[in-house]
Specification:
By secondary structure, the chain is mainly α. It has a domain of 33 residues. It has 4 helices and no strands. Helix 2 crosses helix 4. The radius of gyration is 20 Å and the shape is globular. The termini are far apart. About 6% of the residues have low confidence.
């Protein structure tokens, strides 16, 4: 069975085979590919520094910053965080820093 696609101007686009459409289980959650395990994202380095400085556990940090206790663990295993997650983490760290002053 072929699927006919249309664009915004309602013009017909080329036919595509259903097998060419990726299934939801073919990519990680959110469609983002994980980085190589040897790559350390800049946000992970910032988080690791903060964890060492404060003595806070990784799961507590993730839960407080983005409501995800596995955040730091997943970042260590190569998860590529979205820009929204990075912004929330940085905002949390800035808030924590300003409260301590």
């Amino acid at each position: 069975m072929l699927i006919r696609r249309r664009n915004a101007e309602d013009q017909q686009l080329p036919l595509i085979e259903p097998d060419a459409i990726p299934l939801s289980g073919d990519s990680p959650k959110g469609g983002r590919q994980a980085q190589d395990a040897s790559y350390l994202s800049p946000i992970l380095l910032e988080i690791e520094r903060r964890l060492r400085a404060t003595g806070m556990s990784a799961s507590r940090f993730g839960r407080l910053s983005v409501n995800d206790p596995r955040l730091v663990h997943d970042l260590r295993r190569g998860r590529d965080p979205s820009s929204r997650i990075v912004a929330r983490v940085r905002a949390f760290m800035a808030k924590e820093t300003s409260e301590k002053r």
